[in-house]
């Protein structure tokens, strides 16, 4: 088990969303084991201060249904491939977490007997209370959704205190900062501001779901050392949407 510390967390249970692309690291495609190890270290520091951690991992480093569809594939088949990609990422993440001595469960929205457990909310909550990391794979289990929506859905189901979206940018900006260098960062936004201003950092289904259930969202850059710990201990980091 990771070492415990005296830091008092502000959040008791969080749902962390990692984008698939975050796992690519220097590799360009697939999974960079160095990135997984670094993430396992960050997640371990949360477990060490008593925070319960649910994880939703994307699949964009491997397959995205919309991109496969644009290349001519049937959309539902493409989305099934995207969901399977999230299971592969989940298995890789479990491997890295367990190598760091962090007990980890992987649950899939799509039954995959012999490889991972089938998603069971009550069991997931029990495992979280026991201090295990629970990785929720295969998104929502349905095509035409994203893992951002899956993160909000699972976060609401497990009664997380917040959904933390780790991504490549350090918050929500007035425009995509990769496309508009003059874009300005927000510290705080309401759900309706994100929807009205069409801020594209998260899909609208996810934002609506979070709004309807009062689930706070925080968008932050996972590559900033200590970012996760700062968030759960109540320091300002990234953008808060609530
Ligand atoms: N208003 C915005 N503020 C911040 N990022 C934005 C905004 N609009 C679009 N983005 C883009 O959204 C991306 C984050 O979403 P994410 O789901 O992690 O990536 P992807 O959609 O590539 O998987 C950022 O890398 C950024 O380029
Ligand atoms: O509930 C879901 C979640 C994901 N996906 C598919 O899985 C892919 C990978 O997820 P996502 O694009 O959200 O990954 P990320 O951008 O976070 O890496 C998506 O493009 C979809 O094709 C899906 O069909 N239903």
TrEMBL record:
HAMAP family in UniProt: PyrH_B (MF_01220_B)
GO CC, any one term: cytosol
Alphabetized Pfam families for the sequence: AA_kinase (PF00696)
Oligomer status and interactors: Homohexamer.
Coiled-coil segments on the chain, per record: none
Segments for region (Involved in allosteric activation by GTP): 25-30
Pathway: Pyrimidine metabolism; CTP biosynthesis via de novo pathway; UDP from UMP (UMPK route): step 1/1
Record: residues binding ATP: 17-20, 60, 64, 167, 173, 176
Residue span(s) of domain Aspartate/glutamate/uridylate kinase: 12-221
Function text: Catalyzes the reversible phosphorylation of UMP to UDP.
Signal peptide range in chain numbering: none
Keywords from the named record: Allosteric enzyme, ATP-binding, Cytoplasm, Kinase, Nucleotide-binding, Pyrimidine biosynthesis, Transferase
EC id: 2.7.4.22
Residues annotated as binding UMP: 59, 79, 140-147
Top-rank lineage group of the source organism: Bacteria
Main location: cytoplasm
Regulation of its activity: Allosterically activated by GTP. Inhibited by UTP.
GO MF assignments: ATP binding; UMP kinase activity
Record protein name field: Uridylate kinase
InterPro entries: AceGlu_kinase-like_sf (IPR036393), Asp/Glu/Uridylate_kinase (IPR001048), Uridylate_kinase (IPR011817), Uridylate_kinase_bac (IPR015963)
Family of this protein: Belongs to the UMP kinase family.
A biological-process GO annotation: UDP biosynthetic process
Catalytic reaction annotation: UMP + ATP = UDP + ADP
Subcellular location: Cytoplasm
């Amino acid at each position: 088990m990771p070492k415990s510390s005296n830091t008092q967390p502000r959040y008791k249970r969080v749902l962390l969303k990692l984008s698939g692309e975050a796992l690519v690291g220097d590799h360009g495609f697939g999974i960079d084991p160095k990135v997984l190890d670094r993430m396992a270290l960050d997640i371990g520091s949360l477990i060490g201060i008593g925070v319960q951690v649910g994880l939703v991992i994307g699949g964009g480093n491997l397959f995205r249904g919309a991109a496969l569809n644009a290349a001519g594939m049937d959309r539902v088949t493409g989305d099934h491939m995207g969901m399977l990609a999230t299971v592969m990422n989940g298995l890789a993440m479990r491997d890295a977490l367990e190598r760091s001595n962090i007990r980890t469960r992987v649950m899939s929205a799509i039954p995959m007997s012999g490889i991972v457990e089938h998603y069971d909310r009550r069991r997931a909550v029990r495992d979280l209370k026991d201090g295990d990391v629970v990785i929720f794979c295969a998104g929502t289990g349905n095509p035409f959704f994203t893992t951002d929506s899956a993160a909000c859905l699972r976060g609401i189901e497990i009664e997380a205190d917040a959904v933390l979206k780790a991504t490549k940018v350090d918050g929500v900006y007035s425009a995509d900062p990769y496309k508009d260098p003059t874009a300005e960062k927000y510290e705080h936004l309401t759900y309706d501001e994100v929807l009205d201003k069409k801020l594209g950092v998260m899909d609208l289904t996810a934002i609506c779901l979070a709004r309807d259930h009062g689930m706070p969202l925080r968008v932050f850059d996972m590559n900033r050392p200590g970012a996760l710990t700062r968030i759960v201990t109540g320091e300002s980091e990234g953008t808060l949407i609530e």
